[in-house]
């Protein structure tokens, strides 16, 4: 059971991983001018959209949260709308946090916002998919020993990795190397993406290695 | 509570760090004292009268040989670039490009010559320019040279340009704008071009070429200096072995070719490289390729008596200064230690007259060097005495022989062959003297001492380790102090004593710095030895470090919430509260970014508007608005502090200190506001009141100084802000939770019944005297330590705000706010994590506290570079000039390290705050000022009185906190020291790393002293509390 679950998780994560790579490669065949660094904003949009669609599809197919209690249509709709509002709010919140961390307030608002959207895609969207619009559950998962399934552990790891990656991505910005990727927000979004990808790979492996210790309490 | 051992321990650790810093600094900074004297035409060391009469007009000290000179400096012109080897079949890109020089040297051997030009390290352009004009080997670039003006990079000592200008020569400059900073307003005409962007190969060179020929042709100049940067920038960008370098050198070749066409017969042409470059195109160090530059001398009249030697001679760079000075007929700069290039003075005559000419310039040069050495040794002791003695003997011998010889020549007593040999030997004696003098000076000035640097580094690193270990081990037991403090101290004293004895026996010069660093090393060894002996079974150092890593790992994982203890709902509330605090912290950090100063390395950066004083604001309305804002903020700060104190009941007593807080604080604010008003008002608008304003500008700051120092004195004399109500005589058993000064209607409603109750009780107690249950109600005892610290911090804050420009008070307000938020976050996080060890301050709190200190160093408008220092601070409260250097240094230092001072003094708050904010665990609704009940067994000892309950733990906690603070500070310092040591050959070492190291080490010194002061203030309060209690018990 557990092994099979881990394998499923690994497969899903691999899919996400390759989808991120494909977003960087595929558009290049369609538009000649497309490069990740050159047309960064386009790539940010494409990446966010692809990763979020893939995540939603995976969520629908795999159904990691096993408790669909009430499944009336109206309930589903309200849930969906709530998710949208949460997602939008998290984008705004991320934007504010990024600005507080030193992004320009007035200039390059589009860049900052798209970066916030990317970060939300990597973090909030996953939470919404797996945990639903339930802040209490989020707090539980992100507090110590709060995860109750491998999906939640994986969620924790990928989220932390993406945010840490974004943070580390800001390190080279002040250096005087004059590289094209030092422009705001390229290094940060690349850092977040690499962090996310690393998290996707690390999570199943970590769970696999620690599967003896991980005893999930049922809710 | 053990007070002295704690302070002694911290002071000892500080001393260890200081010794390390001092040792490193002595190895890293090339110190040399600048002499303010300058040479002049009428100096008595000019040649004897019979020669002076022959001096042509416009000449000083020696006859002028050229009326004009062109100095072309090609930055980073390595000797190999200038050399031409026709035999070479396939030259590298940088070889054989300056063919014109070769052409001149071969076609006119008596007119032109190529030299190896030996630069002294550090081979950075600014230092080389200094060397090329002052005539001595390197010193620190900026202004660390003692005695110079700190404000600019400008060269203060006597130099070639100053001499030229003083003697009426018109100096025209074009090229590198470094010269502008070094010689402000010295040039007759100048064309500066930006030098900073090393990627830009052409701006400077093309700019010079545009102006060079018109200027030369116009004839309105006596000395022309052109400083080309293209070659250097090409080296930095591409390296020497690159086609671009070939292009650049070819361009230089063409430039020289046409320049020579434009020159007249009375003009001397010098082409020099200020330094070389390595294979990667960098410079700054002392490797052979960096110091080996080229010098080419040419004139249209014959210069040399003989043809060039086979292999070009090597000439130290400083030799150019006396040579050019005497050739142009100006005095040699006072501090020059270079030797004249005598072959340029041989002239057209026969061998004897040439030798006589050379002898006379050598004589002048030697006299000047001797005069310099003499006056230098009067002010500084860094030249070894016996060497100076030897030099003195050499000099007097040579001079004596010179006078004899001259007398014999006058009397024609000597015949040519003998004369020639004697002249030759005398010249070589002068040469020997000059060379030895230069060697002595260079040896003591121009070297990094790698051994000392490494030693300093090791001392600092070991002190950090010691701090860490001691903070882990610290207990209040006597054995701890004995083994970790007393014995190491004894070891150190022993070594110092031994060295002192050795000094007595050998009569060697005693270097205080070395002695103290040996003592520090010995006492450290003692500490580690005793530690090792005490814990033989304990896992050694490695385990400690692994433990640290383990701990670090723990830090990143959020602490496990005490869900069971707190209950989920309160836990959630705490989380939200914490999140709000974190958001506030982020906002503070972001807002503080508005106050940043700029470095010159970032050209697109604009300095913050808030840094300029209000007086510079044109718009009167904006000025008034800002002024009101600043004053309102000050008042707000006072209000906040007072309401905090009132909230904790520290404003109730009628002690002088409390009275001062009540009435003195507003008065201080009033004075500051008046000072700002007077200082920022426009000068011309006041007309007749001018004199009054002059008085007020001085008087108000003095009033603030006086009031603040009075407050601090009061604080030291009686730091108790406790209002005690002794009810042992009168009151009964009930102690009413009285809320301090009533501030709202609710309180009034609360008070009246209380008064009634009180009256009732007193009636009752009068009735039943005898069976009295004595109680003492003390208001504000629970926060007595932090109240004293906060009062001290506020006073310091006022002083420091006064020293900054008006609008930086906003930054200070942010500073206080951020510190407050940090303390609250620390307290809350602790509450969430559960009170595991209430007496130890966690590492993250100390680290964040220190990070905030460094953040506000930048956010109060400072940068670790010398031009960014706020010099205005030295004149707050002083009109024009200071009689001593000490006071302005203190003022400027306080201005620069304001945030270090505030955060270091406030450091004990990290320990105290969780106790202050502590809620009674049983009843949340209870008022915070819990009356302390004395002489009664009440189990609830509240707030900071917990600390008094266990004095041992309190002193240990203070010691641990201090050690942790010093450890984190020391780690920062260690990083800077390592950067400065490893990058000492870096191009930017004198611009970035050395100033950073200096600021960091000064900041360390200031911080550690202020930390000691803060901790001793807490101890002073503790003393006062103890006496208060004993009085109470006696009564």
UniProtKB/TrEMBL annotation, chain A:
Predominant location category: endoplasmic reticulum
Bilayer topology term: Multi-pass membrane protein
Superkingdom per UniProt: Eukaryota
Keywords: Endoplasmic reticulum, GPI-anchor biosynthesis, Membrane, Transmembrane, Transmembrane helix
Subcellular location: Endoplasmic reticulum membrane
Database matches in Pfam families: PIG-F
Residues forming coiled coils: none
Metabolic or biological pathway: Glycolipid biosynthesis; glycosylphosphatidylinositol-anchor biosynthesis
Cellular component terms per the entry's GO annotation: endoplasmic reticulum membrane
Entries under InterPro entries matching the protein: GPI_biosynthesis_protein_Pig-F
Any one GO BP annotation for this protein: GPI anchor biosynthetic process
TM spans (from-to): 9-29, 41-62, 83-106, 112-132, 153-171, 183-209
Protein name from the UniProt record: Phosphatidylinositol-glycan biosynthesis class F protein
């Amino acid at each position: 059971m557990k092994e099979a679950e881990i394998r499923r998780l690994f497969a899903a994560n691999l899919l996400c991983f390759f989808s991120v790579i494909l977003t960087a490669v595929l558009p290049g065949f369609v538009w000649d001018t497309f490069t990740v660094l050159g047309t960064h904003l386009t790539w940010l949009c494409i990446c966010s959209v692809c990763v979020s669609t893939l995540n939603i599809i995976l969520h629908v197919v795999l159904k990691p949260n096993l408790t669909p209690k009430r499944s009336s249509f109206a309930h589903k709709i309200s849930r969906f709308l709530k998710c949208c509002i949460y997602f939008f709010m998290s984008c705004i919140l991320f934007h504010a946090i990024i600005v507080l961390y030193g992004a320009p307030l007035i200039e390059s608002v589009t860049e900052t916002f798209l970066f916030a959207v990317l970060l939300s895609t990597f973090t909030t969207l996953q939470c919404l998919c797996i945990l639903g619009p339930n802040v209490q559950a989020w707090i539980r998962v992100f507090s110590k020993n709060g995860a109750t399934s491998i999906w939640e552990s994986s969620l924790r790891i990928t989220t932390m990795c993406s945010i840490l990656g974004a943070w580390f991505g800001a390190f080279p910005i002040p250096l005087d190397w004059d590289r094209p990727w030092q422009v705001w927000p390229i290094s940060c979004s690349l850092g977040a993406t690499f962090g996310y990808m690393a998290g996707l790979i690390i999570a199943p492996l970590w769970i696999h290695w620690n599967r003896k210790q991980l005893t999930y309490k049922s809710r | 509570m053990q007070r002295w051992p704690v302070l002694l321990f911290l002071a000892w650790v500080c001393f260890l760090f200081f010794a390390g810093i001092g040792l490193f600094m002595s190895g890293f900074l090339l110190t040399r004292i600048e002499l303010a004297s300058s040479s002049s035409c009428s100096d008595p060391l000019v040649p004897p009268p019979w020669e002076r009469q022959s001096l042509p007009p416009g000449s000083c000290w020696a006859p002028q040989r050229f009326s004009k000179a062109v100095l072309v400096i090609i930055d980073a012109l390595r000797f190999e670039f200038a050399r031409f080897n026709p035999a070479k079949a396939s030259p590298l890109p940088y070889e054989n490009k300056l063919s014109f020089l070769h052409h001149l040297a071969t076609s006119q051997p008596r007119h032109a010559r190529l030299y190896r030009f030996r630069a002294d390290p550090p081979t950075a352009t600014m230092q080389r320019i200094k060397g090329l004009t002052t005539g001595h080997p390197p010193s620190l670039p900026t202004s660390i040279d003692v005695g110079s003006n700190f404000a600019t990079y400008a060269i203060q000592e006597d130099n070639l340009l100053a001499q030229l200008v003083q003697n009426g020569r018109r100096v025209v400059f074009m090229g590198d704008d470094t010269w502008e900073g070094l010689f402000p307003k010295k040039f007759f005409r100048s064309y500066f071009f930006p030098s900073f962007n090393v990627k830009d190969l052409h701006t400077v060179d093309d700019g010079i070429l545009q102006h060079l020929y018109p200027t030369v042709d116009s004839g309105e100049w006596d000395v022309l200096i052109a400083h080309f940067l293209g070659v250097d920038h090409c080296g930095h960008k591409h390296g020497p072995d690159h086609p671009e370098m070939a292009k650049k050198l070819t361009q230089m070749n063409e430039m020289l070719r046409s320049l020579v066409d434009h020159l007249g017969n009375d003009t001397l042409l010098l082409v020099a490289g200020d330094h070389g470059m390595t294979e990667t195109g960098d410079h700054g160090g002392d490797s052979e390729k960096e110091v080996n530059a080229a010098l080419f001398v040419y004139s249209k009249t014959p210069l040399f008596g003989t043809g060039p030697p086979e292999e070009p001679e090597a000439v130290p760079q400083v030799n150019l200064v006396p040579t050019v000075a005497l050739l142009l007929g100006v005095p040699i700069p006072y501090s020059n230690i270079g030797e004249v290039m005598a072959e340029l003075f041989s002239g057209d005559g026969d061998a004897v007259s040439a030798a006589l000419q050379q002898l006379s310039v050598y004589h002048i040069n030697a006299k000047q060097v001797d005069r310099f050495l003499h006056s230098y040794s009067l002010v500084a002791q860094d030249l070894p005495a016996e060497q100076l003695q030897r030099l003195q003997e050499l000099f007097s011998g040579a001079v004596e022989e010179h006078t004899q010889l001259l007398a014999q020549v006058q009397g024609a007593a000597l015949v040519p062959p003998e004369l020639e040999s004697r002249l030759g030997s005398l010249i070589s004696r002068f040469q020997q003297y000059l060379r030895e003098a230069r060697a002595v000076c260079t040896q003591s000035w121009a070297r990094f001492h790698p051994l000392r640097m490494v030693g300093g580094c090791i001392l600092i690193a070991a002190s950090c380790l010691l701090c860490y270990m001691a903070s882990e081990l610290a207990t209040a037991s006597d054995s701890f102090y004995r083994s970790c403090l007393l014995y190491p101290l004894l070891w150190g004293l022993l070594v110092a004593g031994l060295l002192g004895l050795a000094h007595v026996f050998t009569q060697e010069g005693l270097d205080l710095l070395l002695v103290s660093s040996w003592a520090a090393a010995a006492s450290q060894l003692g500490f580690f030895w005793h530690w090792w002996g005490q814990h033989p079974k304990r896992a050694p150092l490695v385990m400690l470090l692994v433990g640290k890593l383990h701990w670090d790992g723990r830090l990143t994982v959020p602490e496990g919430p005490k869900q069971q203890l707190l209950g989920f709902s309160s836990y959630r509330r705490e989380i939200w509260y914490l999140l709000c605090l974190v958001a506030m912290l982020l906002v503070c950090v972001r807002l503080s970014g508005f106050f940043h100063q700029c470095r010159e390395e970032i050209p697109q950066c604009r300095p913050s508007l808030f840094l300029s004083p209000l007086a510079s604001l044109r718009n009167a309305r904006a000025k008034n608005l800002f002024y009101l804002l600043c004053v309102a903020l000050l008042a707000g700060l006072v209000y906040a502090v007072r309401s905090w104190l009132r909230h904790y009941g520290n404003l109730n007593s009628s002690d002088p200190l409390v009275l001062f807080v009540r009435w003195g604080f507003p008065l201080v604010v009033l004075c500051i506001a008046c000072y700002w008003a007077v200082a920022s008002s426009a000068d011309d608008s006041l007309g007749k009141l001018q004199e009054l304003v002059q008085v007020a500008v001085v008087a108000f700051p003095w009033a603030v100084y006086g009031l603040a120092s009075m407050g601090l004195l009061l604080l030291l004399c009686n730091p108790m802000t406790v209002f005690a109500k002794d009810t042992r005589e009168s009151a009964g058993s009930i102690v009413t939770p009285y809320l301090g000064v009533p501030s709202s209607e609710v309180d009034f409603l609360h008070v009246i019944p209380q008064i009634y109750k009180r009256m009732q009780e007193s009636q009752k107690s009068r009735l039943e005297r005898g069976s009295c249950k004595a109680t003492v109600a003390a208001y504000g005892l629970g926060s007595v330590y932090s109240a004293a610290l906060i009062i001290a911090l506020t006073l310091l804050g006022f002083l420091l705000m006064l020293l900054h420009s008006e609008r930086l008070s906003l930054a200070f307000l942010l500073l206080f706010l951020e510190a407050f938020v940090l303390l609250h976050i620390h307290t809350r996080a602790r509450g969430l994590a559960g009170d595991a060890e209430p007496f130890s301050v966690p590492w993250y709190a100390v680290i964040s506290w220190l990070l905030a200190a460094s953040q506000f160093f930048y956010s109060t408008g400072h940068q670790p570079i010398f031009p960014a220092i706020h010099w205005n601070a030295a004149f707050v409260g002083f009109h024009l000039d200071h009689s001593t250097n000490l006071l302005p240094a203190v003022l400027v230092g306080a201005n620069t390290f304001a945030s270090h001072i505030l955060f270091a003094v406030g450091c004990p708050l990290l320990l105290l705050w969780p106790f202050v904010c502590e809620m009674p665990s049983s009843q949340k609704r209870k008022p915070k000022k819990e009356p302390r009940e004395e002489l009664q067994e009440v189990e609830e000892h509240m707030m900071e009185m917990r600390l008094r309950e266990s004095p041992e733990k309190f002193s240990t906690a203070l010691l641990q906190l201090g050690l942790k603070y010093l450890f984190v500070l020391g780690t920062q310092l260690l990083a800077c020291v390592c950067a400065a040591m490893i990058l000492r050959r870096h191009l930017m070492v004198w611009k970035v790393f050395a100033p950073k190291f200096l600021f960091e080490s000064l900041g360390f010194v200031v911080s550690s002293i202020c930390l000691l002061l803060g901790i001793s203030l807490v101890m002073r309060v503790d003393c006062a509390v103890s006496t208060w209690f004993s009085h109470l018990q006696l009564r």
